[in-house]
Write a structure and sequence with these properties.
Number of helices: 21
Largest sheet: 4 strands, parallel
Helix content: 40-55%
Oligomer: single chain
Distance between the termini: 29 Å
Number of strands: 13
Length: 566
């Protein structure tokens, strides 16, 4: 590894301090330098520092063969390229993808960006929650408005917009129960809105997106549902081979059938207890921790009070409450700078008092207070950047996230559905992944677009944010990153990584066992320490090549100095 670093350092010195001296190349020299350029790009990209075992190389070859076929067919117009399609169109095609089925089996580590009432599949919500007793619904006369829900021990009072009725009664009176349930599902998500074929603005999308959360709030914040919903979220992610989640939650009062309310502490204790129960029942799970959030349109006094409350709650639950954030549409909300006095105060003396994990840069704007949230978040000491979509427009920000090792929480499908990018090949994080910036992949709000778990975002990242020659090492890197950049304690992180390693090796063995190939022969072209696709049992051949290249590069640099181009 030190030879690779020396080689890359010498290239850096040559490129930085010496002018390019044009020279004629023979065909053989051109092809050799071209091969070297490709290898160099591979080494410095995400996963370039991952060495694959012989078995991993076979799984890598399987993935790369499938990926290359998809890329080539799409490039030649034989079939659509799935990351270029809107997710609503792409999802049924992804479900039938061989690559997707492999990715589902991959141990993906952790989800570090998910929101409290947008975690669980819509099928479960409809088939479980809406079939419970005492659930009322309020269907507005205006079809543009969404249904409201409320658990109550008596009929709620009618409003100007609509009157309440039991969901059970409306379902029984429907002509088609399955169609009624599908209608409920669309009401809870963006699936009812024709985002794929129409051309709504970001504001239009966000208006509908925000209204989905209002629909969910009436159901979810009833204590029996809160408990079951959180447990179900842990289970669904566990089934998708995710062993730990960090959930952004709003501090909301839960309500009882008689209309009485429970305080914030009640909600926090319930979340923590469910997490601990789940870990006991599932020893390979690290459970969940929470990041408490405020809304970006709150005034200063509300945020000031909230931060004080969160700081106090963190003293009570230091191992469960791991941070603070501000959420909602960044383009229309107040910037971090607006809350500067409130945000600086708790960390004036001890940054660990209240860690920040800010949403920042979820925008296409440049040079505004919105995208400058990236700079402000970094200066405020954020541990990670939520979305960070606009960071490629901020060179200082790019330097600092590498220097400070701040991971960017990338949510590919969310960024597409919410209107930041149409074709995921154009997502700015592809540039960051090509240079191995600290990145983690997350799903944000999967049920809002009919997804479930993390696998869909892993698929879109693998296919849309990386090239045809990027294989298993990238997926392994993303999985490990998710645990390494998590808020788990040092001891918890070590245990989680040990569990993940066992799961990963099992996945490799199972995948190799299901493929009719001979595992005694090497087969990878994506192993970054193996440019020729061969598996040297010792690294002597590679070292010898590197030493030769270093000597050659040194002579070339000396020749350049003699010719005085520098």
């Amino acid at each position: 590894m030190w030879l690779i670093r020396l080689y890359l350092f010498l290239i850096y010195i040559q490129l930085t301090y010496c002018k390019a001296v044009p020279k004629s190349l023979t065909k053989e020299e051109f092809l050799a330098e071209r091969k070297e350029a490709h290898w160099h790009e591979q080494v410095i990209s995400a996963g370039g520092d991952i060495h694959l075992s012989p078995k991993e190389q076979y799984v890598d070859k399987l993935l790369l063969d499938l990926k290359a076929a998809d890329f080539e067919d799409a490039r030649l117009g034989k079939k659509p390229f799935l990351p270029s399609l809107h997710f609503f169109e792409a999802k049924p095609l992804i479900d039938n993808s061989s690559i997707f089925h492999i990715i589902k089996d991959i141990p993906k580590g952790a989800v570090l960006h998910i929101h409290d009432t947008a975690m669980v599949s819509l099928d479960w919500v409809v088939k479980n929650v809406t079939y419970r007793d005492n659930l009322y619904m309020c269907v507005p006369a205006n079809n543009n408005e969404r249904v409201e829900y409320l658990f109550a021990d008596r009929l709620p009072n009618a409003t100007d917009q609509c009157s309440w009725e039991l969901v059970r009664n409306r379902r029984e009176n429907s002509t088609d129960v399955e169609e009624f349930d599908e209608w409920l599902k669309r009401q809870m998500s963006l699936l009812r809105d024709d985002l794929a074929s129409t051309n709504p603005t970001q504001d239009d999308i966000w208006k509908q997106f925000t209204s989905c959360f209002s629909v969910m709030n009436g159901m979810v914040y009833y204590p029996p549902v809160v408990r079951d919903y959180f447990r179900r979220a842990l289970q669904e992610f566990h089934d998708d081979n995710v062993q730990y989640i960090e959930v952004r939650i709003l501090l909301k009062e839960t309500y009882n059938l008689d209309g009485t309310k429970n305080d914030f502490l009640y909600l926090l204790e319930m979340y923590r207890n469910v997490s601990e129960e789940f870990k006991r029942d599932n020893p390979t799970s690290s459970g969940a921790k929470v990041i408490i959030t405020g809304i970006r349109n709150f005034n200063n006094s509300v945020i000031r009070t909230l931060i004080k409350q969160v700081t106090q709650f963190r003293q009570r639950f230091p191992d469960f409450i791991v941070g603070f954030d501000l959420v909602s549409q960044e383009d229309r909300g107040k910037p971090l700078l607006y809350y500067l006095d409130e945000l600086i105060a708790p960390n004036a003396h001890d940054p660990s008092t209240l860690p920040y994990i800010f949403h920042a840069g979820e925008t296409v704007w440049q040079g505004t207070v919105v995208d400058e949230n990236i700079i402000d978040a970094i200066l405020l000491g954020t541990k990670r950047l939520g979305h960070g979509f606009a960071i490629s427009k901020h060179p200082w920000g790019l330097e600092e996230v590498k220097k400070r090792d701040i991971a960017i929480e990338v949510n590919p499908i969310s960024n597409q559905v919410l209107g930041l990018v149409k074709d995921l090949r154009n997502h700015p994080v592809s540039f960051l992944l090509a240079q191995n910036y600290p990145i983690v992949i997350s799903p944000d709000d999967p049920p809002m677009w009919g997804a479930k778990g993390l696998s869909y975002d892993f698929f879109e990242a693998f296919m849309g944010l990386t090239g045809a020659k990027t294989g298993l090492a990238f997926l392994k890197k993303m999985a490990r990153n998710s645990l390494e950049y998590s808020s788990l304690s040092t001891e918890e992180k070590k245990m989680a990584l040990d569990v993940w390693e066992v799961k990963w090796n099992t996945f490799i063995d199972n995948t190799v066992g299901n493929v009719t190939i001979n595992v005694t022969e090497p087969a990878s072209t994506s192993n970054p320490t193996n440019r020729n696709g061969t598996n040297d049992s010792a690294t002597f051949g590679l070292h010898r090549t590197l030493i030769f290249l270093i000597c050659l590069l040194s002579l070339n640099m000396w020749s350049s100095f003699v010719q005085k181009p520098c």
